[in-house]
Design brief:
Number of domains: 1
Helix content: over 70%
Structural class: mainly alpha
Shape: rod-shaped
Largest sheet: none
Oligomer: single chain
Order of helices and strands: HHH
Number of strands: 0
Distance between the termini: 12 Å
Length: 95
């Protein structure tokens, strides 16, 4: 019974692992691009503070915080780690 269940679920687990790897790759590329965008947002916020538009300066600082490694990339990394642990749990119980 366990062997038959393992054979039936193997394609789904393989597809899930491939999708997880693809998501991790896309996340790593996106976080490097976001790193460049953070620099632009910080420069724009400094310019906005210098010309007196403090509301816009704070908005750009907030966008820089969301795009920084402690913002959205950290959330996506956390989700990818949780999905990896869940897949490992199911693979451990099937073997």
């Amino acid at each position: 019974m366990n062997r038959m269940l393992r054979i039936m679920l193997m394609p789904f687990m393989l597809i899930a692992r491939i999708m997880l790897g693809l998501a991790a790759f896309i996340t790593s590329i996106a976080s490097s691009v976001l790193g460049l965008i953070v620099g632009v947002f910080i420069i724009l916020s400094v310019i906005e503070f210098a010309i007196g538009y403090t509301h816009n300066g704070f908005a750009f600082l907030l966008l820089a915080l969301l795009a920084s490694p402690i913002g959205l990339p950290a959330i996506s990394s956390f989700i990818l780690n949780r999905v990896d642990h869940i897949l490992g749990f199911f693979e451990g119980h099937l073997s």
